[in-house]
Structures
1.
Amino acid sequence: MKEIIVVAEHRRGELRDVTWEMLSKGRELAESTGADLAVALLGKGVNSLADALKAKAKRVLLIEDDRLEAFNSETYKKALTQLITERKPFLTLVGHTAMGMDFAPQLAAHLKMPLASDCIGIEAKGETFSLTRTLYGGKVNAEVSFLKKGSPMITVRPGAFTVIEKDPLQGEVVPIASPLTDAGLARRFIQYVEAAIAEVDITQADILVSVGRGIKDAENIPLVKDLADAVGGVLSCSRPVVDKKWLPKGCQVGTSGKTVKPKVYIAIGISGAFQHVAGMKGAGTVIAINKDPKAPIFNVAQYGIVADLFKILPVIKNKIKEMSKKS
């Protein structure tokens, strides 16, 4: 039986969103190709994570080892080498994250597996796959495929696929003996250091109110923050705002920032450069406010307001507050 394996990514006891996204896409691919969907879970004391994953895959391939308590690309490579060699999956999916890109290239090279990285689209075409990758910083989408048949590995961009809820699969947990030994490693885990982030994780927000260079000065940022508060949203921004140090890096949306997919995305004073659009094109509804009627952001917006933001924002904010009082 053909098998698709998703490599689960977890950190400090929690599964990362990209894991659920890959499982959702993996299930779609498994159903269209007649394959089984499995998830490889590596770690120490991760039984609770295995139980959570059972509903999303036919089997959870669990490798537990004290040496897998913290991520190390060397231990992951050794453990997954044996797993993939024995099971010979039809396809292996890995998150295109700092963790995934640390071990995926060396693992693929070691096993001589074809590797396609940073994919935002995957479709099964017979015994191979049609993949979508972005080029030139997101300006061009390229459709590519593997030259040779085989067991490929694909790294998936976080946020590229929507998690679609389906009936649970009631999978089984399959313990796999760890192949790790006490042999010396070139790398060792010392400590986990939390990166500096914004007060709120913009990737988790349902409503984002994003500000661009059209705000003109840092002193005007509170005008947009007030609107974000009024609509129950989170403040984000485009790269020029971060470059000018008006807002922290954790607020940036785009190819050099974060990929977001809120239900509502309000772009204020943002022209809509392709680097920014690439980071928010997964939004459900896009509302753009810009005084330039030819701004590219209007090409991706469902609703647009051509107006001076300094004149229109107070009106919108007051109207929202008025409606809130009535309700």
2.
Amino acid sequence: MGYANYIKELGRGAQGSRSLSRHEAEQLYGAILDGGVPDLELGALIIALRMKGESLEEMQGFFAAAEGRMHALTSLTGRPRPVVLASYNGSRKAANLTPLLALLLQRFGVPVLIHGLIEGFGRVTSAHVFRELGIMPSVSLSQAQQGIAASQAVFVPLSVLSPGLANQLALRSRLGLRNCAHSLVKVLDPFKGDGMVVAAATHPPYLDLMQELLIGAGRRGLVLRGTEGEPFANPTRRPRISYVHDGGAEVLFEAEHESIKSLPHLPDEADARTTAQWIRRVLDDHLPLPLPMAHQLACCLYASGAAGDFNQAKAIVAVDGGVLAAIAG
């Protein structure tokens, strides 16, 4: 497979470049994930795509190639859809509460798969917080599958699910730039359509892109503005939460824009140990769950099928969390 023509078409600049067809994009990205593209050409392709910007059709092709090479996990018949949380950003300013969302879902009997990176390069990753909570990464697919079967919150490093995508993410340290893998990992479903993906990003264009990818693939998921890119709702101000299903999308909660009247009690520091201690206090009902996260939890219960309808999902969370009057609206 020659790469000069791809580089030529993609690298002509903003005005002269041509986007790849979906088929071309799938073929090219498949070769990249298989490790078949030499370093020189690979660097040129990544830079060219970064400068041009990936089209939706290209991303659909990349998405198909990525999912086709990802190791699969199996959901269980008669159980809620496993919730898939992509945790790749980590936190720098505020506490990383992705593990709290995962453990709350586990409390309601929903299987949860968290995939991401172990090291955060200066940020606090979900893996760091889980370790403080006594939850270690699954080192194999069989170990992850056992946890899913037990309706547990399971953290799996990306290298276990997709070595090719893990290699793509690692190129950021060499090239100094993000590449399309950073967006693809946010929408991947290791359950091959049987999971419920929580897709989060910080910039509106990426949210629109992820929503279109999920709709185009016929997947089920929630799309929201993440907190520092992590897939949990900002605990101080709820983002808009959209539910993708059956080829379309509906808004379950609109974003909050009014001034914050009272701030929730949050961890004093963002380090993993302090975050884990705070999470334990919330799980033990010693601290209230921030309302935006209660809203997101209700959305997850509804979208995963753990609740029969959205009103029931809100009621379940309200009764459990003692926030009935606030969440019922």
